[in-house]
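Worked example

This section walks through a single chain of length 87. The input is the sequence exactly as stored; nothing has been trimmed or padded.
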Amino acid sequence: MNILNKHLVPIIALDVWFEKDMMYVRLSDGREIGVPVEWFPRLRKASPEARSKWRLIGRGIGIHWEELDEDISVQSLIYPEMNPVQI
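Given that input, the structure is written out below as tokens.
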């Protein structure tokens, strides 16, 4: 058993914003991740107003857009190779 696993704190989202064709997420470890909106067809097709109506779920482990029926996990943004996006 790895002793470090007992002390790991999950990285969570703190804030979300959009600029042009990019979505940015501020993380609890200080990073800001930017990903193309193109990766998420529902967000790509949504109006700026609809995109702005997000909320954190699971104490920040995910982002949810009720109006768009879209959920994105922080893990999928940090490790996109482990969670390939179907465009």
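What to look for: DSSP finds three helices and six strands in the chain.
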